[in-house]
Amino acid sequence: MDSPDPDWADVRLHVVTGKGGTGKTTVAAALALALASGGRKVLLVEVEGRQGIAQIFDLPPLPYEERRIAVAPSGGDVYALAVDPEEAMLEYMEMFYGMRRAGRALTKMGVVDFATTVAPGFRDVLVTGKTTEAVRRRGRNGRRVYDAVVLDAPPTGRITRFLNVTKEVAGLAKVGPIKNHSELVNGVVKSPETAVHFVTLLEEMPVQETLDGLAELRSAKLPPGGIFINMVAESLLPRAALDRAVKGRFDADELTLGLKAAGVTDAAQATALAQALAAEVAEHAHRTELERAERETLAGAGLTTYELPLLADGVDLAGLYELAESMRTQGAA
């Protein structure tokens, strides 16, 4: 059942970024499934050449073409595209200069690789351009081909530079197709139809990097979206017990009595086990307290937050659908 009032109903380009290790690709894939639910058609794009989408959907490496990879809950299709900068540049040369054959010759000579290496801003224009073209594309019936596009983008530390294509290519071209193309890309990226979502964990470093990335994004007048807090583990203890443990007031003697009642008859063994469990409780309570503080820090960012559960069995297809359902329940899609 669709959320009655999804938070991003007017957004068509969802850019997903996050510090390495936070599960950025997993969240992007789950978001694509959530957005496609109910009969919609969504394109999931990756631009870093890691074949992360193929791995997470348990597929062979994806070619440079759009293909259906999953059926969303309640119907709907997820398509995927692994953008190859070299192929994107050949398309670019064909589109603007009619030089695809010449482009292939330049590829053999290494000129294309040289150009995208010495001018990384140009490389970003190529891959973001391919993504924004999919956002704008219409079929013969005049309707949008995709209801939404999800971009598995570079990490948080590079996201603003990656998206701020007009500034990055300013030194490459003052006029002509490159400049016009970058302005077209910029028009989509900075529009209300785009939202840049951050993925983080309840840990100090990824939270701080999220806040730093958000500040850079706002400074560049790029549109922030939501914050997806990934791998959230539920506490196994009641709040009162955690509070006592944080204050050093957790009573190991109570554990000893409980262990004896459970059948641990050896007094020394019960005491040793109780002390070990009490130490684990204290560690768990301390971690929970730190996570609570990081939640409060993220709340100060002023963005909508979503908490995604830690998957006990790891990330597989079933886990992706579970995350997608969690997103929909919370109103993200």
From TrEMBL:
<dbReference type="InterPro" id="IPR016300">
    <property type="entry name" value="ATPase_ArsA/GET3"/>
</dbReference>
<dbReference type="InterPro" id="IPR025723">
    <property type="entry name" value="ArsA/GET3_ATPase-like"/>
</dbReference>
<dbReference type="InterPro" id="IPR027417">
    <property type="entry name" value="P-loop_NTPase"/>
</dbReference>
<protein>
    <submittedName>
        <fullName>ArsA-related P-loop ATPase</fullName>
    </submittedName>
</protein>
<dbReference type="Pfam" id="PF02374">
    <property type="entry name" value="ArsA_ATPase"/>
</dbReference>
<feature type="domain" description="ArsA/GET3 Anion-transporting ATPase-like">
    <location>
        <begin position="13"/>
        <end position="180"/>
    </location>
</feature>
